[in-house]
Amino acid sequence: MRILPRPVLLGAAAVALVLGGSLLWWGNAPPGPPAPVPEAAEEVLPLPPEPPRVADSPEYEACLGKLRDDAQGALGFADAWEARGGGDGARHCSALALLALGEPLRAASRLEALAGRTAAGPAARAAVFGQAGQAWMVAGQALRAHGVFTLALALTPNDPELLVDRAIAAGTLGRFADALADADRALAGDPQRAEAWVFRAAALRQLDRAQEALRDVERALAIEPGSPEALLERGILRQLQGDEAGARQDWESVVAGSPDSAAADLAQQNLALNAAGPARR
After folding, report:
1. Rounded distance, CA 229 to CA 226, Å?
2. Looking at residue 53, what is its pLDDT?
3. What is the pLDDT of residues 139-161, one digit of tens each?
4. SS3 (DSSP) at 259
5. Is 22 helix (H, G, I), strand (E, B) or coil?
6. Confidence check: pLDDT of 243 > 90
């Protein structure tokens, strides 16, 4: 179902607020108007090998096949096909092409509308609502994303990916208890989902339950050793506990092991803050 790799979502969800010298994934300040995310809007976003199907036709498969290597061509194909009566398949491919071309606002609106009206089955509708929610997140519209993820979960209530996505949106909005509840539900269905343990840890940290958070992030690392998101979070927890050397080690591991990830960007910023000293924190 996923159309965005989790690091892209992490980059959209992370809030650059400093507390105790660390850059938080989620800030403590009350959420204000959604902020734009120009970096995400400008980059070409990767797509999955098999987006959810809302139609069954050779044209649909051909259009989806163009998305990864020729998003502009896919958009032209979809628009021409829709003009010939391509229906839901053409509209879906067009929206995904817009997202791949770095237009998340247009893509999100189209995906949400399509999910609301398509005659496809509940699982496919939920998947498209999920895609819309991810696009809203990239566009910096966490409140809209949270609502769309809720619509998706009404169709597939126990989908762990959707639950984690809604947890990210809730945390971005400062609703950490809600984020924790969604992470709990995701883990009840899939206790081996490392990313859910990481976001559970982040929510617990924001709820001043740091020891529980550290246990969760260690659980994530046991499942996925070297996870950049888990190492980033553990570094934050270590920093808050006064273990600057441990925090630095985790963040340096993120930068060395996953240099092109959103987690590495955040880790690098944390390292720079530490290097600048207390006056810059």
Report:
1. 9
2. 80
3. 999 999 999 999 999 999 999 99
4. coil
5. strand
6. yes
pLDDT at 3: 53
CATH class of 194-281: mainly alpha
CA gap 221, 197 in Å, rounded: 9
Q: Please tell me the pTM assigned to this model.
A: 0.81
Position 32 scores a pLDDT of 33
225 DSSP 8-state letter = T
Instruction: Kindly list the domain boundaries of the chain, sorted by start residue.
Output: 1-12+37-118, 194-281
Query: Which among 55, 45, 46 is positioned nearest to 124, based on CA atoms?
Result: 55
> Which class for 268: exposed (0-12), middle (13-18), buried (19 or more C-beta within 10 A)?
middle
As a whole number of angstroms, the distance between CA 179 and CA 164 comes to 8
Average pLDDT score over residue span 8-21: 28
Phi-psi region of 277 (alpha: psi -120 to 50; beta: other; left: phi over 0): left
Can you tell me whether residue 165 is helix, strand or coil? helix
Residue 23, strand partner residues: 18
Q: For the chain, what is the radius of gyration of the CA atoms? A: 19
End-to-end distance of the chain based on CA atoms, in angstroms? Answer: 39
Q: 8-35 burial, b if ≥16 CB within 10 A, otherwise e?
A: bbbbbbbbeeebebbbbbbbeeebeebe
Indicate whether 41 pLDDT > 50: no
Lookup result for tokens 């044209």: 59
Tokens of 11: 């980059």
Taking the C-alpha atoms of residue 126 and residue 122, their distance in angstroms, rounded to an integer, is: 6
Q: What is the rounded average pLDDT for all residues in the chain?
A: 84
For residue 22, what are the β-bridge partners? Answer: 19
Q: What is the per-residue burial (b if ≥16 Cβ within 10 Å, else e) of 223-256?
A: bbeebbbbbbbbbbbbbbeeeeeebbebbebbbe
Measured in whole angstroms, the distance separating CA 206 from the mean position of its chain's CA atoms is 19
